Automatic annotation (TrEMBL):
Recorded coiled-coil stretches: none
DUF5077 domain segment(s): 30-142
Alphabetized InterPro entries for the sequence: DUF3472 (IPR021862), DUF5077 (IPR031712)
Protein name (record): DUF3472 domain-containing protein
Residues in the signal sequence: 1-22
Keyword field: Signal
A Pfam family of this chain: DUF3472
């Protein structure tokens, strides 16, 4: 080979390799606010405020994001420390101890390799309280196809809660529906603090069960006011939800922050792996109002218990938009996974009609690509929903599930309900 051609070829190859090695990748700066959590299993109560949650540097911190590609990834920490300190770092099961010099605002946490797309976290631990974690900055081939993280301050609170997901049931009748019936089973280990397993949702409210703390659980039934506001005190008297009846030991009052209206709940220590039954009634009173009533079946007494009966003004309707959902309402608990089975759905239009299909839908947090760990499907007994914990299972929103239960209609004497 001609020496000139040979040298030209070698130089060209070296230049190509140099260009590949020097390839610029998009750099992403991921804020701890909206994407970070204190990892502390001893947390016992919920946090409901919508303000940004500051992170306590005495605890382990994790910041989550989803990589859409694979390959190398370079990770840096933006923050500051007033004193020299050791920082324990974990990424993708690799552990490092890095010395963080005082007044260094950009710390190199190292280069790593990921072999497949998915959710990952950077975990940081230090005993130094006089430090601040602001952002994790990542770049490299693993980020070349993009990443998913909460980059919109309007979603930071909601992203830490995680995306809620829903089952929208197809109603098997064109007649007026006055009752909804369904059952829920929460598998053991899926009953995390902050969970709301909503059984019988309708156009004007919702009815299901919650985990409010390590010592308290509730059966919750709420009806929205026709006056749209997040402040219940601003609702005009003529638009307020009126309590007509309530069961023994049931608390009733008002709620706000996510719409406003009338609320009721029974403190009841429901258990994982047990089946719980929910019955909802909605009928117009022919005076321009609709009466909504909710009953919960108590297994220990083998009886239906009235939760509450509310009158919603300026409403003339039967039950509409039968649905269930799963959500986490505590932003500090958003790194835990929740899952529930939603079974045996029926509607009543003069006789019981079986529900045989449901559409999987997601909330605005998922749709805005701020966080996408929500899924659903069918089981041997019905449907399931799963959210939170940064898993990688994907079910396309608006997927229609079919399930034809062999169960008989609910055996309820509707005229003898309390």
């Amino acid at each position: 080979m001609n020496k000139t051609i040979y040298l030209t070829t070698i130089c060209s190859l070296l230049l190509t390799i140099s260009e590949i090695n020097a390839q610029d990748y998009t750099s992403y700066s991921i804020p701890f606010t909206g994407n970070g959590f204190e990892i502390n299993p001893s947390i016992k109560s919920l946090t409901s405020q919508k303000e940004d949650i500051s992170l306590d540097n005495k605890k382990i911190k994790r910041l989550y994001f989803k990589l859409l590609g694979s390959g190398n990834i370079d990770i840096k920490l933006k923050g500051n420390t007033k004193f020299k300190t050791e920082l324990e770092v974990e990424f993708n099961k690799t552990h490092k101890t890095i010395v963080w010099e005082e007044n260094n605002t950009l710390l190199n946490l190292g280069s790593y390799t990921v072999t497949k797309p998915g959710y990952y976290y950077v975990e940081l631990k230090t005993k130094n309280k006089n430090i601040a974690f602001d952002d994790i900055i990542i770049s490299g081939a693993a980020t070349d196809k993009g990443i998913v993280y909460s980059n919109n301050p309007e979603y930071f609170y909601w992203a830490r809660r995680g995306p809620s997901c829903h089952l929208s049931y197809e109603i098997p009748t064109e007649k007026n529906v006055s009752y909804y019936y369904s059952e829920i089973v929460v598998p053991k280990g899926q009953d995390q603090i902050g969970s709301y397993f909503m059984a019988n949702g309708f156009a004007e409210g919702y009815f299901g069960m919650q985990v409010n703390s390590s010592t308290e659980r509730r059966i919750l039934f709420s009806v929205w006011s026709p006056f749209v506001t997040d402040d219940p005190k601003s609702i005009p008297e003529e638009d307020k939800i009126k309590l007509l009846r309530k069961g023994e030991d049931v608390y009733t009052g008002e709620f706000g922050n996510e719409g406003s209206g009338g609320q009721s709940f029974l403190r009841y220590n429901w258990k994982a792996n047990d089946t719980y039954r929910f019955l909802l009634k909605g009928e117009p009173d022919r005076n321009g109002n609709t009466i909504y009533s909710a009953w919960f079946y108590i297994p220990e007494t083998s009886k239906w218990k009235l939760i509450a009966s509310f009158k919603r003004p300026k409403t003339d309707t039967y039950l509409k938009r039968f649905h269930s959902f799963l959500e986490n309402f505590d932003p500090n608990q958003g790194y835990f996974t929740r899952k529930a089975q939603y079974n045996n759905q029926w509607v009543y239009d003069g006789q019981w009609k079986k529900v045989t299909s449901a559409k999987f839908t997601v909330d605005a947090t998922y749709k805005a690509n701020q966080r996408v760990d929500a899924t659903g499907g069918t089981t041997r007994a019905g449907y399931f929903l799963k959210m939170g914990g940064f898993f990688n299972e994907i079910t396309q929103p608006n997927t229609l599930f079919q399930f034809n239960s062999e169960n008989i209609p609910p055996q309820i004497d509707l005229n003898s309900l309390p």
